[in-house]
Automatic annotation (TrEMBL):
Protein name per Swiss-Prot or TrEMBL: Protein arginine methyltransferase NDUFAF7
Organism: Acacia crassicarpa
Family: Belongs to the NDUFAF7 family.
Domain of life: Eukaryota
Stored SUPFAM superfamilies: S-adenosyl-L-methionine-dependent methyltransferases
Entry keyword annotation includes Protein transport: no
Catalytic activities: L-arginyl-[protein] + 2 S-adenosyl-L-methionine = N(omega),N(omega)'-dimethyl-L-arginyl-[protein] + 2 S-adenosyl-L-homocysteine + 2 H(+)
MF GO annotations: protein-arginine omega-N symmetric methyltransferase activity
CC annotations in GO: mitochondrion
């Protein structure tokens, strides 16, 4: 059976226009999970800290305890030899049955063509008057790095390849070793590639500010960044922070506190920016208040605070960076309540199982979120200093950025070679199946606000 990540793309044949919102039932008891955990101690922790430990704890975390969670294909799939969609699905099923891998990323399934398209996008807009510098956050198996280095070696002027550097910022030491092995298959790449095993969102690991233009790549990274959860009793009540507390050895539940955390507060301000800028009439507000009292409806909203923290760091240390990110814009079959809610999935005995409660994650489950690309653009512009929420009177002048969100099929048709992933009957899984994934490109301009 395919992994939940690949299923998320394969099960989704059409484009949805909005995120799925599943409100909690009125009067529902706090979410609980019954298991022995090392994640929550005697004091409550924010949801983002719970998720970060569940995924990245050095001993109990999903990515730490499962070094083989990200797969590497021994050889590229020959799409032109497959008999359409049925042949492609059979090929993937065989791949997963033959391995104990939790999931294969799109850059792995469609290698080398996926990485080649990203390399082409970089080459079309990069400033070659300075050495090309590329940073990849969460390099996975190293397939993207190798594909990009291969493409630039073969298609760019020799001086570009010879002077370039490619740095993978990888939090998992085991994946870092896999990346070195993958890229090292081409001897000339070794001197240009290095892995730094650290958290990219930690400012102290970056050192001095990089004043030269550079590129930052993030593929399927945003979905695994820690998120916070906020809760409101009804449509007009103020948001509250959600914390996770342990009642006894095996019982976890949610705790609601007034908004005080600065990261959560900043993220809420960015999320509600348009709402603040548009003045609501008093009559509309009155109707909303009456409606909320007659039909109270709890609200739950997941905030990409991990993304905000990462982007704040990146814009500080790489002020002239150009960014290309790819991720899921929507996840089907999510049962966990809340706007932008995650899919929590584990794989046992070759079969994927989805949890209905994020607190059930015990270091054995992947927790990944859909990316709200509308909000991502505003986070990017906010962190560059260009966009300011209401009430922000700081004198800091930010850099204006040009950004665009593209469907994966459009990105690949523009920068890639779609013929390389087409099957015998014309079916193209990269263009036809990944309708719930998008690319986000953001580049600096010379203009200031």
């Amino acid at each position: 059976m395919m992994s939940a990540r690949l299923q998320a793309a394969q099960k989704f044949p059409i484009v949805f226009l909005s995120s799925k919102v599943i409100p909690t039932q009125v009067g529902a008891s706090p979410l609980q999970a019954f298991y022995s955990t090392h994640i929550v101690g005697d004091k409550p922790i924010l949801v983002r800290d719970f998720i970060h430990s569940s995924l990245y704890h050095p001993i109990h975390g999903y990515f730490s305890s499962r070094s083989c969670s990200v797969g590497v294909l021994e050889k590229s799939i020959k799409f032109n030899q497959l008999e359409g969609r049925t042949g492609y699905m059979r090929c993937l099923d065989d791949i997963y049955k033959q391995s104990d891998i939790s999931w294969f990323t799109p850059v792995e399934i469609f290698k080398p063509w996926y990485a080649h398209a990203i390399a082409e996008a970089i080459m079309r807009t990069a400033n070659f008057s300075v050495p090309l510098k590329i940073y990849e956050i969460g390099g996975g198996s190293g397939t993207c790095a190798k594909g990009i280095l291969d493409y630039i070696m073969l298609n760019a002027p020799a001086k570009v390849y010879n002077s370039m550097t490619y740095t993978s910022v990888e939090i998992s030491p085991s994946l870092g070793e896999v990346q070195r092995e993958t890229v090292g298959q081409v001897r000339s790449h070794i001197s240009k590639f290095r892995v730094e095993c650290r958290d990219a969102a930690d400012r102290t690991g970056w050192g001095d500010v990089e004043q030269q233009p550079c590129w930052v790549i993030m593929l399927e990274v945003l979905d695994n960044l820690p998120h916070d959860l906020i809760y409101s009793e009804n449509q007009v009540s103020s948001w509250k922070e959600v914390w996770v507390e342990r009642h006894d050895r095996d019982t976890l539940s949610e705790l609601y506190k007034p908004l005080k955390d600065s990261l959560i507060t900043r993220c809420v301000g960015i999320m509600e920016l348009d709402k603040n800028l548009s003045t609501q009439s008093s009559a509309r507000s009155m109707v909303k208040n009456i409606w909320s009292k007659l039909y109270p409806k709890p609200r739950r909203c997941w905030l990409p605070t991990g993304c905000l923290k990462l982007f704040e760091v990146l814009h500080e240390v790489l002020p002239k960076m150009s960014l290309v990110a790819s991720d899921f814009s929507y996840l089907p079959d999510v049962t966990i309540p809340g706007e932008r809610a995650p899919l929590v999935s584990t794989k046992r005995d070759g079969r994927s199982t989805d949890y209905g409660n994020y607190l059930e994650a015990q270091g054995d489950a992947d927790i990944f979120f859909p990316t709200d690309f509308w909000l991502l653009e505003r986070i990017d512009h906010y962190c560059s200093g260009w966009l300011k929420p209401q009430g922000d009177n700081t004198s800091k002048t930010g850099k204006k950025r040009r950004s665009i969100t593209l469907e994966t099929s459009y990105f690949m048709e523009e920068f890639g070679l779609p013929s390389k992933t087409r099957t015998k009957d014309g079916y193209n899984p990269l263009l036809d199946d990944f309708k719930n994934t998008k690319f986000f490109l953001s580049v600096p301009t010379h203009n200031t606000k």
